[in-house]
Amino acid sequence: MKPDNGHLPRILCLHGGGTSALIFSFQTRKLVNALQSDFRLVFVDAPLDSGPGPGVAPIFESAGPFHQWIATNEEEEERIRTTLQRELQKEDGAPFVGVLGFSQGARIATGLLQEQEHTPAAAPHLYFGVLINGSYPPLRQSSNPSTILPRFTESAPGPWIPEHEACVHRPTVHVHGRSDSYIERSRLLARCYDPSTATVMEFDNGHHLPTSDADTQTIAAEVVRIYQQESRKHDASGE
C-alpha cells in the first residue's frame, strides 16, 4: 500500500555514477525510514547511460540499467538540465525543499545549489542540501553564459575554491566516510560551501552511507533541524 505522504515536503535524491534511482533508494533505506515522518524522498535517474560504478558488484550487478551525471557534450548537458528541471517543476503534492546527492550526485547537487543561489528567479526554492561522500569538482549544468560561476568539466584545473560570494550559503549537511578513498575530494567539495552554514560529519565508513542506527539518526536529526530553521526564516520573511 502506497504511504499517504503526499503532504510532506520533498527532497530530490541524486544517485552516484554508474548506479540508478532504484539502487540509491535501496542504499538509503535506513535514512529514508529515519526521515519518513518529515519528508518524501524522490529518487530520479540520470539521463545518461553508464556501466556499473564502484561498489555496484556483486550485489547490484544485475540491477541495471546504470546511469551517470557526467556529460561529454552540449546535447548531454541539455538532457541533464531538462531532467532536473522537469523533476523539480512537477506538481505532486508539497514542493521540493532540499536536494540530497551521493558521490557524483553530490557534484550535481552542488552545481544545482550554486545555480539556484546565484539565479534569483530559479525555482523551486531549495532550502538546504545533503552531500554524502561527495566528489570534486561540482558539476554545473548552466545554460547561462553570464553566470559568475566557472563551468566545470572533468578536465578542469584545480582545485578551484570559490571566493566567499561564489560559495553556497544555504545550510548543508556533509557526510564523509573516514575510510572512503575519495574523502579528500569530499572535503574539497565541502569547501565550496560557506563554513558558517555547512555542517560536516565524518563517520567510520567507506564510500557508502553509515550503517549504524545511531549515525543514521544523527544525520536525520541535522537534516530536520536545518529544514525547520530555514522554514521559520522563510515564513517570517513572507517569501
Summarize the structure.
With 239 residues, this protein is an alpha/beta fold. The chain has helices spanning 21-27, 29-35, 74-88, 104-117, 183-190, 213-237; strands at residues 10-14, 40-44, 48-50, 66-68, 96-102, 128-132, 172-177, 198-203. α2 (29-35) crosses α6.
Identify the notable features of this structure and list them briefly.
6 helices; two-stranded antiparallel sheet; 239 residues; 32% helix; 6-stranded parallel beta sheet
Explain the overall architecture.
The chain is 32% helix and 17% strand. It has 239 residues and is α/β, with parallel strands linked by helices. The strands form two sheets. The protein has a six-stranded parallel beta sheet, with helices on both faces. Strands 3-4 form a two-stranded antiparallel sheet. It is globular. The protein starts with 9 loop residues before the first strand and ends with a helix. The model is unreliable at 143-158 (pLDDT under 50).
